[in-house]
Amino acid sequence: MPLAPNRQQLDIAAERAKCTFDPSQLTPLFYGGEEKMKRLKKIEALVDSEPVFNRDDRYFLGRTERFKRALPMAKRYVELRNEHSLTPEESAYMKVYIDDYIPIHLHESMFLPVLRAQASEEQLKVWGPLAENYHYIGCYAQTELGHGSALGRLETTATFDVERDQWIINSPTQSSAKFWIGTLGKIANHAIVQAKLIINNKDYGAHPFLVPLRSLKDHTPLPGVVIKDQGPKQGAVSMDNGYARFNNVRIPRENMLMRFSQVSREGVYSKPIHPKLAYGGMTAVRTTLINHSALSMARAVTIATRYCAVRRQGTVDIKTDLETQVLDYPSVQSRILPLLSHSFATIFSGIWMTDMYAQYNADISKGDTSLLKDVHVYSSGLKSYCTKLGADGIEEARRCLGGHGFSLFSGMIDFHRQFLATVTYEGENALLTQQVSRYLLKLYKDVLRNPNMHLSPPSKYILSLFHENLFVHQKCEARSIRDLYRPEIVLAAFQHRAARLILELARAEKAGASWSDLNLECMRLSKAHVQYIMIENFHNGLEKHFNCHANPTVEQQNLLAAIRSVYDLHVFYTMETELSEFLEDGYFSPEQAAWVRQGFKNSLKAVRPNAVGFADCFGFTDSLLNSALGSWDGRAYERMAEMTEKEPLNGEPMTDKNGVVWGYEEYLKPLIYGKAGPYKARGDSKL
Amino acid sequence: MPLAPNRQQLDIAAERAKCTFDPSQLTPLFYGGEEKMKRLKKIEALVDSEPVFNRDDRYFLGRTERFKRALPMAKRYVELRNEHSLTPEESAYMKVYIDDYIPIHLHESMFLPVLRAQASEEQLKVWGPLAENYHYIGCYAQTELGHGSALGRLETTATFDVERDQWIINSPTQSSAKFWIGTLGKIANHAIVQAKLIINNKDYGAHPFLVPLRSLKDHTPLPGVVIKDQGPKQGAVSMDNGYARFNNVRIPRENMLMRFSQVSREGVYSKPIHPKLAYGGMTAVRTTLINHSALSMARAVTIATRYCAVRRQGTVDIKTDLETQVLDYPSVQSRILPLLSHSFATIFSGIWMTDMYAQYNADISKGDTSLLKDVHVYSSGLKSYCTKLGADGIEEARRCLGGHGFSLFSGMIDFHRQFLATVTYEGENALLTQQVSRYLLKLYKDVLRNPNMHLSPPSKYILSLFHENLFVHQKCEARSIRDLYRPEIVLAAFQHRAARLILELARAEKAGASWSDLNLECMRLSKAHVQYIMIENFHNGLEKHFNCHANPTVEQQNLLAAIRSVYDLHVFYTMETELSEFLEDGYFSPEQAAWVRQGFKNSLKAVRPNAVGFADCFGFTDSLLNSALGSWDGRAYERMAEMTEKEPLNGEPMTDKNGVVWGYEEYLKPLIYGKAGPYKARGDSKL
After folding, report:
1. Does any CB of chain B come closer than 8 Å to the CB of residue A672?
2. d(CA A486, CA A494)
């Protein structure tokens, strides 16, 4: 006979019963559509069926153990990829779902894309198959100890020796050592090394070279190459990010990647025709980071929402003698439910960005580069904003879990540690805001010269600055709190704010401030612009995907209403967080500000009944969540206890069969038996 | 011949040369005075001289290894305490400076204080010496799987058996298992267990009992006691937080801690006279957490400031061909220097709170409990605010370090993980804000009844609400940005804001909102009130400690000016962060808001030249910082490379003498040699 469900199971079942929509209707949104979801769910099942990927003891393993576990995972991953002829999309997802940053990860996500983008057709014919089949295992070596993303400041040199038709790769200083290179430390046998190309003492700037690191025969490091793992990190525990120093290592001239620049046998250098085309890779990665942010936030929301629905603390209901579900406290709602709304906002902007990037790629193949700037700017701005939303929001959600949020069993910590890297890599978040601001400032100056110029939709609002005297007297037209639910009022407010910040930036620049003195203004403006397009994208996506039926069924209407409540929450949360920016030039009145605060509270109430439904809609498996607190069935306390069973401190050799801990005889018994001498604190203060 | 200093060493020396004050003048502020500093510096030297406390390989160790390392540390700690007859203050600091949460930590910081507070004099005579000399090693077992701080909801029972004059300790459910109990999992042989006291089926609520857990002879768990380590956590890696379930464990009646309540041989229960006196312990811990927050922020500031002074990226100076020190970018300053100001603000409030607590204890011994409420409220409010400042601020500072901030070698991660617990324990931060708000609301209602009532200085401003019609028309009197540097203008603004939020809370309550519906208002009010007293305390402390000379020397004037710049930064940062709250009722005009933003930028510029001086002033040793990036001498890049030497992946058995990694034959060679089969992605989308 099955056990009767416990209190927590009853609670979570009650939450599901009161949900006003079918969560499974929303899942494809987060998987990129119905068809793709079906395939990716099969990948999930495949991974879950392989013992090598089992996550049961992951939280107990130290770094060395995680690395040792990752090697068989890497091998099995390649075997499965080959066996099932996985598409690149599927194999990429398999790595995502394995949910450990295994040390070959960057071979396919960095080395191969750069090789394909930068090697000539001839080179690719030779190197491509070798790399695709893991004969070459590669890494991408750009960052150095002293410099990260600034290609112009790299110190590694590649000097041409015209006599022997070779490049001499060298690390002249300690700070020139390659550092942070994933897959380099222990695994890769080849690296694409970014190095200053030097011919006859002339420096042509950084260029990519294919440099063999380890013997293909026995994996020993090649002469002149000093390689090490670079030590423990916040996340990427299983990854061998590495350090490499080159001591005049010689490679053939043909190992320079020659799609864009070439060097002839005689040492004649040819420039690339479109230098900017060489940088497409970062834009692609930033675009994926937007979606990655959405899903990471959703993962935290799933755990936090489910646990806070079954966790009861505080005020007691006299009738039932039950305490209150913590999810019913506004202090908890206000820290978890906005993250839910950010997941939705971010996924819609991720879709928008992915579409734009696809369009850009299609255009480029026809020689049209007009979208280059937009793709660069929006991927930068969204990456900067969304990764910060995620990094901060996941931690805030963790803090809502009480003490148990501090346990790795919560499932909130391991993946967050890994996620924290995203605020830094592929363009540091604060730096990226300068790109966005510079672009907007440029558009503003163009508009002043030509008020009829064409602007793409997300920057059209800049036209309003042409009539500056009219602009500065704009006021928000909301006459009641209801007006703040109208998209045109909301979008106008966000447009006004962003436009005002452009104006202020322009004025400060005109007044003689240097660009680097305007950092803070750039950060503020970039955030304002990105928040605006996030809301615009959320609104458009909602209309396109969920308000698209001529005669909607009741189910469709309920679903639309539910998502709209999340949209409203996103709007009110963002407005409240940034309230001063709507107030400080008088655009909002004090009364309107009060409506915003009230609107935020109302939105929390509106989303609350469906919270567990939304947590379910993301489609995470229990296996991936690996969480005692956030699993589907709500059995949080039992799972917390069950997961302690595998703690190594509880088994041999750390605890013997009588239950006595390692080290008792040597370290504890002397204390207990009084061998550490008597204690008498000094009365004075002399030491 | 010594090596010439490298670029980074030159940079940090130049920073020190331009500092306008002597940093060592400030160090005693953070050590609790000159005399105490001298003693504590000796403790630091003592710890640094003992190999068992060496931190060189700490970042490489997994949890089991950290625990194994912690046992000899614990033993040596007790030996040193005894050998040097350390005072309780000194031995507490020794544990702080060891900087690892060793598994006996809570014996002295929780078990002993509770024993002393709750055991009767008779009981203490017996148990005190046994516990002080580590014959009894104890833990404090309050939290259960299902409940934390709410004593009233604990499920563990202590049922009196009058026949046998014994208590029967029992855990009736899974959620009643004790959980999170530090020192319990493997080490303690005694616990003070909080359990519902039951006599003749009558429940008298939670009371403390001394329960033996393990045999004093051989450390085996006693019959009926199931104990385990509870598994891995975000921090407290070396601590054996544990799980315990009691299966009708019998202890003598006298093992109830009987200072406040008693049960007689016949089973007659006597109530405590002053029930609230039993809760002094949490207040003491919260008070220490304020100082702990200040020092933790200071530690992050030290590392971040030093590294950002030697790290150069971006804009190049044409004359020197040097890039800009990243500390010169406002985007970096705005994220590190406010944390510096928070460290100062927090240490001054920590001193204020410590003094108040000492006064309270002195009063109590004379039977005067009038400070009870203030001590409780201010320790709660400050703990809530300052631990959040620290938890968020340290992470933000870490993100300013570029990629290297993600390495454990940064020295920013291990201690931050531990610090993150403080936002939850000793009262969850969001919950604590309710205590503060409830108190202020009560005072407001008292004022309405009696406008001449006595209020302690930090709440005197509430009197202004008596004339509500005057209050609501208050405006900030600043007529230029210079006025915002005047303390009376600043304090008036913070007082007005806090008072307004009290008024709004009172109105909302009057309008019928339930208390738990007012969570968000409580959080906002508590923060406003605490920010006000932090600024007041900073200002008063600055005057008292640094503006106290009749004829100040130039050095004293420079020191005062330097600290004042940090005070201004704290004020402007806080005002800017909370700008909407000064704007939304019209107290600030748009023009005044613009001055605040400008004032913040000005303050960053004013503090910047002394930034490294301030980083130095906290007095951290390199040994404690354990940071490649933040050590005194600025040799960041060399240290990053040097620290990789000890990475276990780089030595045997993980890498053999030929430089080949563990697992190559089994997992990598098959891939490189083509044994994983050929790869051909499917053209279709079938899986």
Report:
1. yes
2. 13
Instruction: Give me the catalytic one of B426, B521, B536, B581.
Output: B426
Structural domain includes residue B164: yes
* ipTM confidence: 0.96
Q: Do A218 and B660 touch (CB under 8 A)?
A: yes
B439 & B480 share domain: yes
User: CB–CB of A274/A176 below 8 Å?
Assistant: no
Q: How far apart are CA B506 and CA B510, in angstroms?
A: 6
What are the Cα distances from residue B398, in Å, to A123, B303, B408? 41, 9, 11
Same domain, B172 and B235: yes
CB B550 within 8 A of CB B458: no
Domain that holds residue B44: 23-100
Same domain, yes or no: B576 and B653: no
User: Which of A189, A87, A213 lies closest to B672 in space, CA to CA?
Assistant: A189
Set of chain A residues whose Cβ sits within 8 Å of the Cβ of B687: 39, 42-43, 84, 86, 90
Nearest to B621 by CA among B411, B452, B404: B411
Which ranges in B511-553 belong to alpha helices (H)? Answer: 519-546
User: Whole-angstrom Cα distance, residue B472 to residue B490?
Assistant: 18
pLDDT tens track for B523-540: 999 999 999 999 999 999
Contact flag A133-B230 (C-beta cutoff 8 Å): no
Compute the radius of gyration of chain B from its Cα atoms.
28
Contact A668 B146 (CB under 8 A): no
Closest by alpha carbon to A371, among A463, A442, A456?
A456
CB nearest to B240's CB, from A78, A649, A674 = A649
A422 inside domain: yes
Tell me how long chain B is.
Answer: 687
Could you give the CA distance from residue A69 to residue A52 in angstroms, rounded to a whole number?
8
In a domain, B579, yes or no: yes
Task: Give A469-516 pLDDT, tens digit per residue.
Answer: 999 999 999 999 999 999 999 999 999 999 999 999 999 999 999 998
Asked if residue B560 belongs to a domain, the reply is yes
Whether the model clears a pTM of 0.95, i.e. scores above it, the answer is: yes
Compute the residue count for chain A: 687
CA B129 to each of CA B136, B321, B638: distance values in angstroms, whole numbers, following the listed order: 9, 68, 50
Task: Fill in the DSSP letter of residue B109.
Answer: I
